[in-house]
Automatic annotation (TrEMBL):
Gene3D superfamilies: Glycogen Phosphorylase B. GO terms for molecular function: hexosyltransferase activity; UDP-glycosyltransferase activity. Keywords: Glycosyltransferase, Transferase. InterPro entries: EryCIII-like_C (IPR010610), EryCIII-like_N (IPR048284), Glycosyltransferase_28 (IPR050426), UDP_glucos_trans (IPR002213). This is Glycosyltransferase LndGT4. The keyword Nucleotide-binding does not apply. Residues 22-243 form the Erythromycin biosynthesis protein CIII-like N-terminal domain. Belongs to the glycosyltransferase 28 family. It holds the Pfam family EryCIII-like_C.
């Protein structure tokens, strides 16, 4: 097969495609990753073939959703939803569809890439709807590759149900899809928003499934880029090592008898986590899933942007860490919470790691992708 990954043009979204891309290459398939020229280095350093798209587009304009006027009145720009709850789902769905439109400038180049290379399968970021349209034009099978909870499918389901009950409800998705489909004369199909199927690497317990979507689950494999291992990471730390994502965390924790490593140290998590006694962060999917896979206890102060609160709930449920309300995260509370993590959560984190290790890995997903591609591909 020829498999094209369409990655959202920021490094944090480009990195998660690597483990599955490696598995496909190791199985003998051809793999390329389409992303913005400014992200090509991250792709090629992972040993993958990069295809630059959006060469005339300003990267910040594509990725900074806060520049979108539709998002400007929303504090923090968060698109999170509670598990099974979201009283303002309509407003969040509207903001999500406005975010979809940001990547429209990539449509022509993505379509050209799929058609010229004769891609068999396109795996695309949930926000990269132009990749789904490109796959449809080129006759390729296509699926979404998640990097967090499936808030998009959940919100889309709520919108569709509401539209059935209120036919006059103005569906905000229509305008975005019309702009993408008109150049090719294509009719709308739900798979262009939700994929023909969806690959979900999130740990069980924070997955958010939507009716009518076929999910193929896979184990999260941490990857955050390569690099030279710093001298201090080449042996065991003399004191408990704690990685803290944020200057505020770093300063608050320095009074404890621990070694604090901050984000300014620029060490890939995949190198750092095995030597850590704990991590402190806001609950982002990449850090949460990577720490869980490494068996490292966590202290989460969730900032509700996507699935952070769900991650905090699952962490506590597994006994693998502590969640602290951001409104109560003063320095003394942070230090007390971290003490609890270091003293009480090691066994829970280790047990969770063993549980996650039994999930199917990327190599086990490859035969599933082969069968689904054969079924959905339009020759």
């Amino acid at each position: 097969m020829r498999v094209l990954f369409a990655a959202f043009p920021v490094a944090a979204r480009a990195f998660p495609v690597a483990p599955l891309a490696w598995a496909l290459q190791n199985a003998g398939h051809e793999v390329r990753v389409a992303t913005h020229p400014d992200l090509v280095r991250q792709v090629t350093e992972a040993g993958l073939a990069a295809v630059p798209v959006g060469q005339g587009e300003d990267l910040a304009a594509l990725t900074d959703l806060t520049r979108n006027p539709a998002l400007a009145d929303h504090p923090g720009g968060g698109l999170h939803i509670g598990t099974g709850e979201c009283p303002d789902w309509g407003a969040r769905w509207y903001r999500t569809t406005r975010a979809f439109a940001a990547l429209r400038p990539l449509l022509e180049e993505l379509t050209g890439t799929v058609v010229r290379w004769r891609s068999d399968l396109v795996l695309w970021d949930p926000f990269c709807l132009p990749a789904a349209v490109a796959a449809r034009v080129g006759g390729a099978a296509h699926a979404r590759l998640l990097w967090g909870r499936d808030n998009i499918a959940w919100l889309r389901g709520r919108s569709a149900r509401y539209q059935d009950q209120s036919p006059d409800f103005p569906e905000p998705l229509e305008e975005t899809m019309q702009q993408l489909l008109e150049p090719y004369g294509l009719p709308y199909a739900e798979e262009l928003v939700l994929g023909q199927w969806t690959v979900d690497p999130m740990p069980p317990g924070i997955r958010l499934s939507a009716p009518g979507v076929r999910y193929e689950n896979v184990r999260w494999v941490p990857y955050g880029g390569g690099g030279t291992v710093p001298e201090r990471l080449r042996g065991r730390p003399l004191r408990p090592r704690v990685w803290a994502a944020g200057e505020g965390f770093t300063e608050a924790l320095r009074e404890l008898d621990i070694e604090v490593v901050g984000t300014s140290d620029a060490v890939p998590l995949v190198q750092l986590l095995p030597s850590c006694s704990a991590v402190v962060h806001h609950g982002g999917a990449e850090v949460f899933a990577s720490a869980a896979a490494a068996g490292v206890p966590q202290l989460i102060v969730p900032e509700p942007t996507w699935g952070e609160e769900a991650a905090a709930v699952q962490l506590v449920r597994k006994g693998a860490g502590v969640a602290l309300d951001r409104r109560e995260s003063d320095p003394e509370s942070l230090r007390a919470a971290l003490r609890s993590v270091l003293e009480d959560c090691r066994e829970g984190a280790a047990a969770w790691r063993e549980e996650l290790a039994r999930l199917p890995g990327p190599a086990e997903l490859v035969p599933v992708l082969e069968k689904l591609t054969s079924h959905h591909q339009r020759i």
